[in-house]
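Design request, tokens follow.
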């Protein structure tokens, strides 16, 4: 567990929350229980890519589909596999502030470094409600918090609303995943010097270079490491780690990443559209399988990919990967 005083959370994050962080999926057995062996295998696979940190039970981890006991068990497994190897953050988002606080206490007891908290979906439709909820949870934990701004939770905070949240002493910063470039840019410009702001897509690095705002020091976090990279061929992690220090290698990106990123963007957007705006969890799980991970089915109400879509993705991904591997990886 990270050693910092609550009031020093922002300073600790500025020093330690850096480079590429992953977000973990939750594999299930055929009878729909947490597949512990597969989860441990996935963690070791991602660690071999050089990833700096991990998010446990984030949106790609299907936290909403897990019981409280399952969320805690997931945190236990991730903590056990991560000790002294990478930093870890637990999502404690819940509609109940009491449950969010209870999960925060569990994460603290298990040695997590920080928390991630989003708006309590369902009834919080105003910024004031989100700010007050975040403040209450933050007061009850010694861990730092990265706030998660995403339309998946039913409300998207403005840059000004995020500024209010970041005034809470142990809120370290924001994962700005609104998918609204204007909000992302405004948030970086308004808060980037005082808090850790992370937009989970590479375009933000070129935007910082062009517009001169504070460099994004961490990709917090996405699935691109384990969807784009293989052990011994970690081009995405290499690129993000360099970009997070201000070294943007356009030629490296064009050679090793652009084709797979373009493929990912197309499948991501098409899948989200088909699902009415829901994150493409099933697509990411299957993509992970194609890269050597344990994926498996999502839990309802998320629907699995159709067999014909899986076959098409497999064909297109293999076509993108093969030339790069032939070229020496």
């Amino acid at each position: 567990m990270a050693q910092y005083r609550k009031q020093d959370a922002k300073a600790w994050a500025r020093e330690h929350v850096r480079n590429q962080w992953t977000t973990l999926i939750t594999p299930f057995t055929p009878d729909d229980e947490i597949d512990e062996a597969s989860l441990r295998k996935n963690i070791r696979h991602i660690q071999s890519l050089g990833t700096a940190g991990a998010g446990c039970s984030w949106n790609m981890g299907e936290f909403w589909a897990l019981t409280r006991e399952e969320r805690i068990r997931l945190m236990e497994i991730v903590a056990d596999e991560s000790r002294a190897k990478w930093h870890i953050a637990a999502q404690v988002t819940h509609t109940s502030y009491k449950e969010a606080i209870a999960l925060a206490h569990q994460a603290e007891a298990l040695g997590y470094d920080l928390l991630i908290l989003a708006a309590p979906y369902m009834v919080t439709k105003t910024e004031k409600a989100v700010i007050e909820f975040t403040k209450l949870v933050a007061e009850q934990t010694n861990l730092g918090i990265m706030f998660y701004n995403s339309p998946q939770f039913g409300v998207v905070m403005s840059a000004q609303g995020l500024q209010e949240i970041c005034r809470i002493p142990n809120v370290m910063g924001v994962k700005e995943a609104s998918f609204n470039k204007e909000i992302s840019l405004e948030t970086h410009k308004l808060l980037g010097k005082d808090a850790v702001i992370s937009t989970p897509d590479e375009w933000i690095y070129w935007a910082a270079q062009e517009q001169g705002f504070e460099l994004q020091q961490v990709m917090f976090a996405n699935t691109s490491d384990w969807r784009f990279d293989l052990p011994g061929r970690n081009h995405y992690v290499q690129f993000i780690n360099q970009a997070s220090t201000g070294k943007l290698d356009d030629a490296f990106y064009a050679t090793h990443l652009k084709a797979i990123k373009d493929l990912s963007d197309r499948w991501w957007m098409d899948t989200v559209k088909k699902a009415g705006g829901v994150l493409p969890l099933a697509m990411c799980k299957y993509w992970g399988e194609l890269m050597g991970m344990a994926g498996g089915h999502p839990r309802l109400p998320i629907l699995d990919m159709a067999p014909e879509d899986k076959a098409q993705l497999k064909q297109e991904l293999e076509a993108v990967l093969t030339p790069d591997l032939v070229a020496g990886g």
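Comment from the thread starter after seeing the answer: thanks! The chain is about 50% helix and 10% strand.
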